[in-house]
Design a protein that fits this description.
Layout lengths: L13 H13 L9 H13 L4 E5 L2 H11 L7 E5 L5 H8 L3 E5 L10 H6 L5 E4 L11 H11 L2 E4 L8 E2 L2 E2 L6 E5 L13 E5 L2 H10 L23 H10 L3 H19 L7 E2 L13 E5 L2 H10 L25 H9 E4 L7 H15 L2 H4 L3
Parallel strand pairs: 2-3, 2-4, 4-5, 5-8
Antiparallel strand pairs: 1-9, 6-7, 8-9, 10-11, 11-12
Bound molecules: pyridoxal-5'-phosphate.
The site of pyridoxal-5'-phosphate has 14 residues, from helix 3.
Length: 374
């Protein structure tokens, strides 16, 4: 069985992790959060982003919350978010007392459709929040232009696109600020929870830095300039991520190579109702490889039979979730939820496994169930 979520992601780093834990646990400083290693990790990420400010925090979700809070989002405000995506896109907005307004997605990119988003901008709109999805960055040039034209703020959910580059600009630096997530399954995932805010705006950076640690400025303890949060970063994870950082480009390149192979194998299957994601390299970062399949459930069952684990991101549009239930029509998001199927794409898949997965999809397309009409 080739699992969709591998259980050996960190096997090669296990002894390093134990050494780091021992080093930290026996160091005289006895400092386990927001210490020198966190500072070094933030500096290393910032250097890769041409000197942008990086503020690590408790999770990608928390990074969104800290930024929305720092941007002053609160009761009476609206934030335009994609109708197709993960819960934090809406929950972070709701938890600040504001209202998420859901925009339908582009049918090919699966990211928020700029035209739909623009049509939803009202006098109450404070922020537009596009998110990069699976392997494709959102249309950030369009979002930058329309945010400026309407005088609203632009926050980029780049949680899944760390390392992606669109038109020469890294994911995270298109918006006034972006976020990264280090939760296990993400491309720069780790052995726990963590996230980061990235921004070229020093004022926003300062606000987020205070908010992540109860509104303190990092100099005078127990002086609270603002009402903040506990969203601090762990020193052990900083050490471990510093160890893993040099390997990230290689792992992303391997993911891209697998995606390119899948695309080459699946592009001829359009007549059988199987459509690979957009190819190319500009604005691509391969977190999840998502096919669209006319007969998704049958394909999924066939792949399970062939020993290939798959996953469905996401079974229902955000505004159709009980927690965010809203009236409206999001036909492209609905269709994506019916058709989408993710295949394994982690970097330590062997060539033989990648080939087996591709063969299994192609074999399905050649069966009556796969070739059947709608
Ligand atoms: C994973 C993810 C988040 C949240 O990150 P966590 O670290 O899990 O809190 C936010 N937005 C998107 C698009 C994500 O994929």
């Amino acid at each position: 069985m080739i699992p969709f979520f591998p259980d050996d992601l960190f096997d090669a780093d296990r002894s390093v992790l134990l050494d780091l834990l021992h080093q930290l646990g026996t160091s005289p400083a006895q400092r386990f959060i927001l210490g020198e290693h966190t500072a070094r990790f933030e500096a290393a990420l910032g250097e890769q982003l041409g000197g942008a400010e990086v503020i690590t925090c408790g999770s990608g979700t928390s990074a969104l919350t800290l930024l929305l809070h720092a941007m002053g989002v609160g009761p009476g405000d609206e934030v335009v978010v994609p109708a197709f995506g993960c819960a934090p896109l809406a929950s972070t907005v709701v938890n600040l007392g504001a209202r998420p307004v859901f925009a339908d997605i582009d049918p090919v990119a699966m990211t928020m459709d700029p035209d739909r988003a623009e049509a939803l901008i009202s006098p109450r709109t404070k922020v537009v929040l596009p998110a990069h999805m699976f392997s494709v960055m959102a249309d950030m040039p369009r979002f930058t232009e329309l945010a400026a034209r309407h005088g609203v703020r632009l926050l980029e959910d780049s949680a899944v696109a760390q390392g992606g580059v669109l038109d020469g600009r890294p994911a995270g630096l298109w918006g006034e600020a972006g976020v990264y997530s280090f939760v296990q399954v993400k491309t720069f995932g780790t052995v726990g929870e963590g996230g980061a805010v990235v921004t070229g705006d020093p004022e926003l950076g300062r606000a987020v830095r205070m908010l992540r640690n109860h509104g303190q400025d990092g100099r005078t303890r127990f002086q609270h300039h603002r009402i903040g949060y506990n969203s601090r970063f762990d020193e052990l994870l900083a050490l471990f991520q510093l160890h893993r950082l040099p390997g990230l480009p290689g792992r992303l390149a391997r993911r891209a190579e697998i995606a390119e192979y899948y695309n080459a194998r699946f592009e001829p299957l359009a007549a059988q109702g199987i459509q690979p994601p957009p190819g190319g390299t500009n604005g691509r970062c391969h977190y999840v490889y998502c096919l669209r399949a006319r007969h998704r459930e049958q394909l999924r069952a066939h792949l399970t039979e062939q020993g290939v684990g798959t996953h469905v991101y996401y079974p229902s549009p955000l505004p159709r979730q009980p927690a965010f239930a809203t009236d409206g029509s999001w036909p492209q998001a609905e269709r994506a939820c019916r058709e989408i199927l993710a295949l394994p794409i982690y970097p330590h898949l062997t060539d033989a496994q990648v080939e087996h997965i591709a063969e299994a999809v192609c074999a399905f397309a050649g069966t009556p169930a796969g070739a059947g009409t709608r």
